[in-house]
């Protein structure tokens, strides 16, 4: 289907010469109007700075002489890219994404290194019989008792993820009594129990949150999420924990150091 001339504009390099990467820009140089508008709003975000409110849709439509729906589409993409975030009923400029290393380090350590304050809110800590598939991963018998620890993750006062941890009760029998759910679980294992991590298998994929997960994290269900599955082992090679961690795709990136 041909695109109407009204919905596209010739792509122009910004006056400052800072042209964006050409990925997604067709060779004929015409782009959807919302994409053109995104390129015009980007310098405005730099001028405003992190946490500052964006002008209303009506103000942006008047400033750039475009339809309100064009503004909405441009803002939707900027929200998904993590350059904007919702704050109450308005929209504000987002800060840089949090960068977490793909390594055997705690969430607490990773967030603190970037000058942010980590936090958690307990959703639930329950004890139940372990199903067969999970029992095989944890190296225990089906039906043995496991803990399920579920917490919402914060960076400063912003909800950024949801973490579920499964660990055998035999490993941490007093978890419900002497663990502070607002603190680092890895710190608890090291400092209170003397448990150390040896290695881990980790898998990263992109998913959409379930309605329950989106509600807990405070995001729209359509927002892409980064999902990490991790099976950690102790220095003797024995399974220690199984983790399912869901992070906001607009607020997180992950890095890994490679060497030959």
Automatic annotation (TrEMBL):
This is GntR family transcriptional regulator. Residues 31-96 form the HTH gntR-type domain. PROSITE patterns: HTH_GNTR (PS50949). Signal peptide: none annotated. Keywords: DNA-binding, Transcription, Transcription regulation. The keyword Glycoprotein does not apply. InterPro entries: Bact_HTH_transcr_reg, Chorismate_lyase_/UTRA_dom_sf, Tscrpt_reg_HTH_GntR, UTRA, WH-like_DNA-bd_sf, WH_DNA-bd_sf. It comes from the Bacteria. PANTHER family: GNTR-FAMILY TRANSCRIPTIONAL REGULATOR, MANNOSYL-D-GLYCERATE TRANSPORT/METABOLISM SYSTEM REPRESSOR MNGR-RELATED. Pfam families: GntR, UTRA. It comes from Streptomyces iconiensis. Gene3D superfamilies: Chorismate lyase-like (3.40.1410.10), Winged helix-like DNA-binding domain superfamily/Winged helix DNA-binding domain (1.10.10.10).
